[in-house]
Structure formats: C-alpha cells, structure tokens
Design a protein that fits this description.
By secondary structure, the chain is mainly α. The protein contains 21 helices and two strands.
Length: 404
C-alpha cells in the first residue's frame, strides 16, 4: 500500500476496514474541524495550505461515512462544508470551493454553492474544474438552471456546450413548454365548467383571451424556440424541425386570440387528437392555418374532402388558391372531388361555379375533359376543344380503348 494514491484509491483502504469506516471518518472529521477552527482564529494569518488540507480531510471523511451508510456522519460533513464554504467565500478561494463541492459530490444538498459561484461570475470555473464524465454534476447543473434561472439562456448554452448536453437541454425546454400547455388547458377546462360548458360535450377546449393565457402561450413558444436551437446545435435536425413546428402551432394559437375582445374565446389547437383535426381544417381554419396545424401533428388530411367542403360547399375561393401555392391539384384529388359533387346531387349556380373553378385549375387536360363531360360543363368542354387541345384529346380521351 506504500504507492497508493489517496485521492483516487482511498476506497481500497475502506475495503480493509469494512466495520471501521465510520470510526475512521469521525477521527478525520474531528481533525479537520480542529484545523479549520485554528484557521478561523488565525484571521489574516491563515494558511491556504491548511484550508486545502481541511477540504481534503472533509472529502475523505465523507467517503468513510458514505461507505458505512452513516447518515448522521454525512449530515455532519454537509453542515461543516457549509461553514467552510462561507469561510472560503470571504477569501474568494474559488478553487477550494469547487474542490470541496466536486469532492463531496452531494450536489443536491450543496446547491447553494452553484448559487455562490453564479452570483460571483465563477460558474465557468466550476465547469473547467468539474469532470466532464461526472453525470451527477451534469444532472444537478441542469436541475439547478431549470429551477433557479430558467431564463438564463446563455448559461444553459455554456453548460450544454461543456458537457455536450444539447439534446438533454432541448428536452428540458420541450418538457417545460408541454407543462405550460397542460396547465393552461387544465385551467381553461375549469373556466368552461364555471361557465356551464362541459369540455367533453363541446368537443374542443376554449381558450379565453386574457393576459394570463397570452403569457402562457408566449412562454411555450419561447421554450420550443430554445429547444429548436439546442437540437440544431446537437445536429438533431428532425427533432429541431418538430420543435419548430410546435412553436409555429402555438404562434397560430396566439394569432387566433389577437383579434378577439378581452375574455373572448378561441378554439384550442393544442394537444388535439386526430378526430378533432379534420373538422377544424374543413370548416374553421384557412389553408395556411390548416397547413401549420397538420404539420405540427404530422397528420395527413383527405384534401379532396377538405377542398370539397371549403371550396364548393362554402365557396371559399381563396382556399383553393392558397392550396395550389403549396400542393399540386392531382388527378386523384380532382376525381374524388368530382365523385363527391355527383353524390351530393348539387345543382345550385354558386356551387357549380366553384366546381368549375377547381376544374379550370387542374393541370391534366384529359382528366379535366372527362370530369367536365361527366358533370355536364359544356362550356368548359368547348373551351378545351377550341383552345388548341383537340389533337391531344384525340390521342387520349377519344382514342379507342383508352381508359382514364
């Protein structure tokens, strides 16, 4: 044992005295307390080497008590650590403060050290001296930041960069955003019940346009934005896109509240299930709003049904124009709309005009001709024939054996 490294292999000594660890711990602790008392009385004549000895003795005593699961001994160490840290703070000995913290490794009980270091702009000193492999330190730092300085984005970034914790920090921001949303929805449900509205019967939660609601939604947007940034730094592009989509969805929710009077209500677009999405995009939202919604939920709509509802039954001309800015009007979609149109036995001029408007925008000539013929849109058929499409139609729709 002559070549043993006390700071790294002290556990080997403890293995030799399995039933005497606490006894050894008490002796070391007593000596550390005596040395520290002498340094306190020495005032300006203190020796930093003696204080360094106190720190190492307390760490060693703590190891003894930990090996023996002696909670009373551990408690006495933690109490003494607080006194020693206070003394070291007056001396501004950041090195010994950090050594004591990372040596004892009771980060939850010694959160006050994080606060001391942050207040004195020495947080980066802790990161330099702390081991990158110390998982307990990583988790303790993240927990501290989340609890005591959630808005200090730069500090989160420094810790994430040091420990390569981009994904973990991003997940913290996402969970925080989800928690804010869950609480807001729970409060909104209670408000609905107070107004004699049963959320389950209504089908959707209603958000009230108040300062509190807007504050929560803005907080959630900010948290998802931070999550997106950290996912990007961790090169998790897919997760970054998902976080960004959630931020866009909440921004859409905020926009729905903007035009309302105080205490007015808007449908909640957050935490929806699939059965709630389809009615919203078919009747309540514009196309651009619908696109934000379906992207956030990775939902694939039946666009033919949506276009039939919005553009034909509701005569929403702007909807199909916005749709075509992002999605192609395919033959399959046009055929589905046509079947729905025929099944509904529609004859009103307004709805006929809306259907004709959709067909005009269909790129496929032969599908356009066939559907126009089926629906009896003679003027549209004549336009195709007289518009220079006659030869093409002869080679496709009119060709013997052709099946559209």
């Amino acid at each position: 044992m002559w070549n043993i490294k006390m700071d790294q292999e002290f556990h080997l000594i403890l293995q030799l005295i399995p039933e005497g660890s606490s006894l050894l711990g008490h002796k070391i602790y007593s000596y550390a307390s005596a040395v520290h008392k002498m340094q306190l009385l020495a005032n300006l004549e203190f020796k930093i080497s003696e204080l360094a000895l106190v720190v190492e003795l307390l760490i060693t005593a703590h190891n003894c008590f930990t090996a023996d699961c002696n909670m009373e001994g551990i408690s006495s160490i933690l109490k003494k650590c607080q006194n020693v840290v206070s003394h070291l703070l007056t001396l501004r000995s950041w090195k010994l403060i950090v050594r004591l913290l990372t040596g004892v490794r009771r980060y939850t009980e010694m959160t006050y050290v994080f606060q001391i270091l942050r207040t004195n702009d020495q947080f980066e000193f802790l990161l330099r001296k702390g081991s990158r492999k110390d998982n307990a330190l990583k988790l303790a730092l993240l927990d501290y930041l989340k609890k005591y300085c959630p808005d200090n984005h730069e500090l989160f970034k420094i810790v994430a960069l040091h420990f390569t914790l981009f994904s973990e920090v991003a997940l913290l921001w996402e969970r925080e955003a989800q928690s804010v949303i869950r609480n807001l929805i729970a409060i909104s449900k209670l408000e609905m019940q107070n107004n004699m509205i049963i959320p389950e019967n209504h089908g959707y939660v209603l958000f009230t346009n108040t300062d509190g609601t807007r504050l929560c939604l803005n907080k959630a947007v900010e948290n998802y934005s931070h999550a997106t940034e950290f996912h990007l730094q961790g090169e998790k592009l897919s997760k970054a896109m998902n976080s960004a989509k959630q931020a866009e969805l909440i921004a859409l929710q905020i926009s729905l509240l903007k035009g309302l009077p105080n205490n007015g209500t808007a449908l909640c677009l957050l935490n929806l299930n699939e059965t709630q999405i389809s009615p919203l995009i078919s009747s309540e939202l514009s196309f651009d709003q619908s696109l934000t919604l379906v992207n956030a939920y990775n939902y694939t709509p039946d666009w033919a049904s949506v276009l039939f509802e919005q553009c034909i039954l509701r005569n929403n001309v702007a909807y199909v124009n916005s749709f075509l800015n992002h999605i192609s009007l395919t033959d399959a979609i046009a055929n589905d709309i046509s079947r729905k149109f025929l099944a509904a036995n529609i004859e009103t001029p307004c709805e006929m005009k809306s259907m004709r408007n959709i067909l005009i925008k269909l790129p496929s000539i032969h599908t356009k001709y066939r559907i126009a013929s089926e629906l009896g849109f003679i003027d549209l058929v004549e336009d195709l024939i007289t518009g220079g499409q006659l030869d093409y139609l002869k080679d496709t729709v009119w060709k013997k054996g052709y099946r559209g």
